[in-house]
Specification:
The structure holds two protein chains of two kinds. Chain A is mostly beta strands. Chain A contains no helices and eleven strands. In chain A, strands 2, 4, 5, 6, 9, 10 and 11 form a seven-stranded mixed β-sheet that branches. Chain A has a four-stranded antiparallel β-sheet with strand order 1-3-8-7, with no helix packed on it. Helices cover about 0% and strands about 45% of the residues of chain B. Chain B has no helices and nine strands. Classes of the chains: A mainly beta, B mainly beta. At the A-B interface, strand 5 and strand 10 of A face strand 4 of B.
Chain lengths: ~110, ~110
């Protein structure tokens, strides 16, 4: 089975622009979480979705939004990009919301100039 | 804020056991201890988790002290491919299922 896939792998945007990142979970997994990882730090939780509903939100501004589709894939949207949004964005899937294990994708490297 | 404290870096000789400590003195009764690792340029990978009993799987062993205030992840025969950042995380079964990550321990396996 394929693991968690994310697209694109790398992205360069300019301040003020908007970006959409995509994630496809492992087949059969219904929960998707998004994390932001700045260089040298651990991942920071942004959102968790389960069965197309938001079930958790981290301490991120309203410029960050996400959704989950009927096929359980997910999008993370960031508006009005700032230089500080430059990071690795990680998507993780799990079978359900209480699963012990989260399976991470390779991430999308976003650079804001 | 992360509920765990880990040393920023450690070295271990190839073939030896790597013992990674983690302090979680404020852990509550319903919180589990999880370990993940992140190899350079990859997404994090689940290793093991436990509540109060010691746990072992094909990757590692987890030793949790009786008071649950600290734990140790043991990689029994470290290889060069085990070089990674190792994260110790505590998480409870409440309405918020997020993982709260610290900075982790950079483990370097030396030949």
């Amino acid at each position: 089975d394929a693991g968690v896939t994310q697209s694109p792998t790398h992205l360069i945007k300019t301040r003020g622009q908007h970006v959409t990142l995509r994630c496809s979970p492992i087949s059969g997994h219904k929960s998707v979480s998004w994390y932001q990882q700045v260089l040298g730090q651990g991942p920071q939780f942004i959102f968790q979705y389960y069965e197309k509903e938001e079930r958790g939100r981290g301490n991120f501004p309203d410029r960050f939004s996400a959704r989950q589709f009927p096929n359980y894939s997910s999008e993370l949207n960031v508006n009005a990009l700032l230089l500080g949004d430059s990071a690795l964005y990680l998507c993780a899937s799990s079978r359900n919301i209480q699963s012990y294990e989260q399976y991470f994708g390779p991430g999308t490297r976003l650079t804001v100039t | 804020d992360a509920k765990t404290t880990q040393p920023p870096s450690m070295d271990c000789a190839e073939g030896r056991a790597a013992n990674l400590p983690c302090n979680h003195s404020t852990i509550s009764g319903n919180e589990y201890v999880y370990w993940y690792r992140q190899i350079h340029s990859q997404g994090p990978q689940y290793i093991i988790h436990g509540l109060k009993n010691n746990e072992t799987n094909e990757m590692a062993s987890l030793i949790i002290t009786e008071d649950r205030k600290s734990s140790t992840l043991i990689l029994p025969h470290a290889t060069l491919r085990d070089t990674a950042v190792y994260y110790c995380i505590v998480r409870g079964w409440d309405s918020n299922y997020q993982l709260i990550w610290g900075a982790g321990t950079k483990l370097i396996i030396k030949p």
